[in-house]
Design goal:
272 residues; disordered N terminus; single chain
């Protein structure tokens, strides 16, 4: 087992070398241009296995390693990604998203425009969230280990709407907020990294957070995850000006519960 971990770590250090000979897969869109490319790194089955094991051990040892979290999320999620794509293909808006392949990056979203929107709008809430935590849409890692072009985009879309989901559910990026979002994403998307993140993250909650979680937020996450609209089928970019309460209502998402305590700190905003 120790040798496996060492081999995985060595492989992870060699990733820049592995990526040197790949041909970029360029995501196109009828609306956007100059998008960042999805550059798949071709791995042998052995390399894929070692990297999955190594990144999995690494992320559970240090959840702050967003790079390892991204790698493990990609390598452990092919079945879930196919499920997500099928759900999108069965929905007219989801199908359009797959065709147009919009991206959430600083060169595709006018953040200054969003700052001028009314305070009750979804777009204003999103940019306020990003400004408050000093986040950028470009912080999201580009997918590297999903060979299928369309599945790679599904994974990229999931990552790039993560902060939009935080905004929609009014969840901060402390541990409790991340656990709520992870449960919603896990139940809707079936990504292993989200389901394990929701479970193990809940075990790391502080006593006051645990009380709040069990009394209000776990039930809320279950209601949204099981009964809310499939969020991968939401063309968020077309709802910037919409009232937050109206948008949630249209997606069968109830208002978020009030917190029983004030969050004093935040953790890294992580997604698979």
């Amino acid at each position: 087992m120790l040798n496996t971990i060492r081999c995985s770590a060595a492989l992870f250090r060699c990733l820049p070398v592995l990526s040197g000979g790949t041909t970029p897969i360029v995501t196109t869109s009828r609306q956007l241009s100059n998008q960042e490319a999805l550059n798949p790194i071709q791995l042998t089955p052995l390399q894929r296995f070692l990297l999955t094991v190594g990144s999995g051990i690494g992320v559970f040892s240090d959840p702050r390693r967003a790079d390892l979290l991204s790698v493990f999320g990609e390598l452990s999620g092919p079945v879930a990604l196919r499920y997500m794509r099928q759900k999108m293909l069965e929905d007219p808006v989801g199908s359009r998203i797959l065709r147009e392949k919009p991206r959430i990056r600083t060169h595709t979203v006018d953040l200054n425009y969003l700052r001028q929107l009314p305070d009750n709008s979804f777009g204003k809430a999103y940019v306020t969230f990003m400004d408050h935590y000093h986040y950028s849409p470009d912080d999201r890692h580009i997918v590297r280990y999903v060979d299928d072009h369309e599945l790679a985009y599904v994974m990229q879309r999931y990552r790039e709407i993560h902060d939009l989901v935080h905004t929609l559910l009014e969840q901060p990026t402390d541990m409790l907020g991340e656990v709520v979002v992870k449960w919603v994403e896990g139940m809707q998307n079936r990504l292993p990294m989200c389901l394990t993140g929701g479970f193990f993250g809940s075990l790391r909650l502080a006593p006051k957070q645990t009380k709040d979680y069990l009394k209000n937020h776990l039930d809320y996450a279950l209601r949204v995850g099981l009964h809310g609209d499939f969020l991968m089928n939401v063309y968020f970019e077309e709802h910037w000006t919409k009232d937050m309460a109206e948008l949630r209502s249209s997606l069968n998402i109830p208002p978020p519960p009030e917190r029983l305590y004030k969050s004093r700190s935040r953790i890294h905003n992580l997604t698979a």
